[in-house]
Design goal:
single chain; 241 residues; alpha/beta; Rossmann fold; 5 strands; globular
């Protein structure tokens, strides 16, 4: 986790790096990383195509904690902006020519994976800062309003049919090839085999959940389920092929 000082240093370094830049106006791609939807894997593929210095990766929590705005960064110097940045936020640095990309995952699977991420990463960090913190049980976790319909919250304001590409985590290999063809990428076997933070624990544990809990997850995420099904229909109609 960056400190406030390191956050300021990063912003200063980015501005210095691109001082005097006279290249084409960017960004070309705006990638909305919905939590637990293969976003880290996709980020590394983006870096393989545009270079580490061609992808600006940021997070709305990171920006909020430092009282910064995405617009404070030299986003017009990067071909790609990627991160946990909702459409309402990332669109502020978009151009009429910018292409929007996102990846989806079945809402039930995404919620389960999100809980295991909370247990393995978020909770330990909270515990270090406050030893009195207790682990939130799964059922209470999924009831929280901040954990419901995350997909819709990230994509609010952007109709699905206006995305340049929407991929699905459960068919990642197929969809990354489709996207690569649309953008003229050079993808090799190493790119296609890349998997980062593959939460096998969540997948293995999903069948052990009671039918009652699965129904609760679906009820708490009705909007996400509707959006996901709509996206699947549009994909089957080859909107993003």
């Amino acid at each position: 986790m960056f400190t406030s000082s390191s956050g300021r240093d990063l912003l200063r370094q980015l501005k210095q790096r691109w001082r005097g830049f006279t290249g084409p106006p960017y960004p070309h791609l705006l990638s909305i990383h919905i939590p637990k939807t293969a976003g880290r894997t996709f980020r590394e593929i983006l870096r393989s195509q545009y270079g580490v210095n061609g992808v600006l990766s940021l997070d709305h929590h990171y920006l909020a904690n430092r009282k910064e705005r995405l617009e404070d960064y030299p986003t017009h110097r990067y071909p790609v902006i990627h991160g946990h940045l909702p459409y309402q936020q990332i669109s502020k640095v978009g151009l009429p020519t910018s292409r929007y990309i996102t990846w989806l995952r079945h809402p039930v699977d995404r919620v389960i994976s999100n809980y295991y991420f909370y247990c393995s990463s978020e909770y330990p960090a909270l515990k270090r800062r406050d030893p009195t913190k207790e682990l939130i049980p799964f059922e209470r976790f999924i009831r929280r309003s901040t954990r419901r319909n995350i997909i819709c919250k990230y994509l609010e304001g952007m109709p699905l049919n206006e995305f340049f590409f929407v991929g699905f985590q459960d068919q990642f290999d197929t969809d990354i090839r489709k996207l690569g063809q649309k953008l003229g990428w050079q993808l090799n076997a190493e790119h296609l085999a890349l998997r980062i933070n593959d939460n096998t624990k969540a997948r293995q544990s999903a069948p052990s959940l009671s039918e009652e809990l699965i129904l609760k997850i679906r009820a708490y995420n009705e909007k996400d389920l509707a959006l996901y099904e709509k996206a699947k229909q549009l994909s089957e109609q080859e909107l993003w092929s």
